[in-house]
Amino acid sequence: MKRHILYMKKILLTLALLASATMAWAVQVECSPGNLKNLVDDTSVTTLVVTGQMDARDFKFISDELDALTSVDLSGVTIVGYSTVEPLINNEASFGADCIPPLSFAGKNSLAQVTLPSNTRGIGMAAFAGCSRLASFTFPESLDSIADYAFAATKLNQVTLPQGVQHLGEGAFSNNTNLTSVTIVPEGKLELPARAFEGCTRLVTVMLGTNVTAMGDRAFMGTTSLTSVSIEGSNNIKQLGDRAFLGSGITSFDFENALRLRSVGDWAFAQSKLASVATALGTNHLGKGAFYYAPSLTSYVPNRQCDSIAPMFLAGTQVENNVTYNTAIRYIGDYAFYNTPVQTLILPNSLQYIGTRAMAGMTHLGSLTCYALDVPQLGDEVWAGIDQSTIPLMVVEGCVEKYSGAAQWMGFMIQDFLFGDVNRDGYVNATDITIIYNILLGAAYEFMETANVNGDAVISSTDITIIYNILLGIAYAPGRGKSVSDSSDQMSAEDFVIEAGETHVMEVELVNDAGFSAMQLDIEMPQGLSISDVTTTDRAKDMIMGFNEIEPGKWRIVMHSAEAMEGNEGTLLNITVKADETFGGNETITVSNIQGVEPSELTHYIDDFTVEVGTTTGVKDINIDSQSTGPVDVYNMNGQLLRQGVERSQATQGLPQGLYIVGGKKVIVR
């Protein structure tokens, strides 16, 4: 009996000790600002629940003293601001309300669970950095700022940022080796900072919103499992920083639809797994080594507006296609195409310089054409490793002697070609004109490389005019025509209304300073509208005209002749527009890529314009009170002032059918 009593006493004592230990490790306190250190007297606490108010002094106490924490619940806390004369944390002396101060939980290797106040606005620098057991985290919806390295080297497995986040600091989620998924769809503009997800080796899924406007230096460097980045909505990224995807597993990036992308930094995709690249028209800066030794890259389609190729740009890739075709390149940097298997090169007439060893090791090169009338200058050993004696170099007729006497060029088999001979049959004739005409209309794709007759980086009606002039004996010189971008020429068409099942003839007006012998324009139609017919007026009665849908919803019209059209103003084209049952009204037709070419080969680039289109049922009628008085201004939907200071009741009298802005309101005239 005594033995049994002693045994029971031992059990009760053990339970009491366990209860005492549990009470010591789990602490729940109601805090006032700066008082946490007086409420927690056992720094071995593992679970901390705080209510009341805290300030930076309390977070400093947690940072300095509570290293055994596994769980922290601050959901019942209000964080108040605090300022002091002497620096308190990270050499800072002032701390905002509703913000987690810097370094608050940094390096706490046991911390696995954190709940922040629901009204938290900011998370300070390295606040959770190095919390190697922190695998999940709920970001308060009120959050608008995450500072540098706030969650670096944690074990987060997914990140979904609240839409209100306006600032993300450098390296905010870097070296999270468990992170697999990231979703950032902000309400306002947001730039991904430098090193944002650097070293996140298991990152697979990235979804970015349309308001993400840039990716900083090294943003996704070393993300070896990442194959692509998805954009929700339109891609508005303007800049990719240096080394943004260096060494990543990315296999595709939608350059073509990155219409706002202006700059790609140095080494941005170096040693990545990109398979192909086709840059958008506005991407005018591609940095040094941008695709350096990306071993899977087999195709690079250049941006025709780029005027230089950076050093080491495609060095060590497997690009095979003609990397300088359809460009206006002036400068090719050192080692730009080093050791690539490019087979054909067509160098534009704009080329002035090729850097040291830029083409070295291109042992697959089989053909070289250079349009430059003046022999481009070369760096050292440009063609090292290439057997020049087996490769024909085609130059413009009359330039053979120049190239034959130039160092590093003379080793090729130099031949000349007949300028304007698009199909290379030995003749310049109407066949060459027809080939370009069909290419412009999307009806042919053969001879694309030679259809750019003047080597100005774009196939256009200018090339047709040049061949006309060669045939007529008027001119014989490549690219002697100069573009005019600030001309006063103007093309327009009136707004109109149309219903499903109806057609409408859209009259396209042209006011031009000089007579054009060739023209082209693109027309983008909204859903439900299409072009069923196009005819010319007497102004263009001697011109050959064709039109074709070159891609869904986009039509191109091309016109050409040997002589200039008649007159300098009036209707040029009658375009029959058809509406089907999917047309909803209140849409816009966009007319762009408008070019007019003089017989002298001078090309005029004419401003784009739009045409507003409505339906009689889809546009709300606005009645103008005939008894109402007062002056109003009347505009068409292109913003042109038609009437100024007229009586409201007479504002639309005599106007043709269409949409107008009367006194600041949209009005339909039937």
**Number of H- or I-type helical stretches:** 7
Distance between the ends? 110 Å
Helicity level: 10-25%
Instruction: Indicate the overall shape.
Output: flat
Main beta sheet strand tally, sense and closure: 8 strands, mixed
> What is the class of the domain at 20-156 in the CATH system?
Alpha Beta
Tell me the radius of gyration. Answer: 35 Å
Task: Please state the second-level CATH architecture of the domain at 20-156.
Answer: Alpha-Beta Horseshoe
The quaternary structure here is single chain
User: What structural class do the secondary elements suggest?
Assistant: mainly beta
Beta-strand content: 25-35%
Number of strands: 45
Give the name of the CATH superfamily of the domain at 20-156.
Ribonuclease Inhibitor
Mean pLDDT: 87
Q: What is the CATH T-level topology of the domain at 20-156?
A: Leucine-rich repeat, LRR (right-handed beta-alpha superhelix)
Which regions are unreliable across 5 or more consecutive residues at pLDDT < 50?
A: 11-24, 476-482, 617-627
Give an account of the 3D structure.
It is built from seven helices and 45 strands. Residues about 10-25, about 475-480 and about 615-625 have low confidence and may be disordered. Strands 30, 32, 34, 36, 37, 39, 40 and 41 form an eight-stranded mixed beta sheet that branches. Strands 13-15-17-18-20 form a five-stranded parallel beta sheet, with no helix packed on it. Strands 1-2-3-7 form a four-stranded parallel beta sheet. Among the domains are: about 20-155, Alpha-Beta Horseshoe (Leucine-rich repeat, LRR (right-handed beta-alpha superhelix)); about 430-475, no CATH class; about 485-615, Immunoglobulin-like (Sandwich); about 630-670, no CATH class. It is mainly beta and about 675 residues long. Helix 5 packs antiparallel against helix 7. It is flat, with a radius of gyration of 35 Å. Strand 1, helix 2 and strand 2 (about 45-55) form a beta-alpha-beta unit.
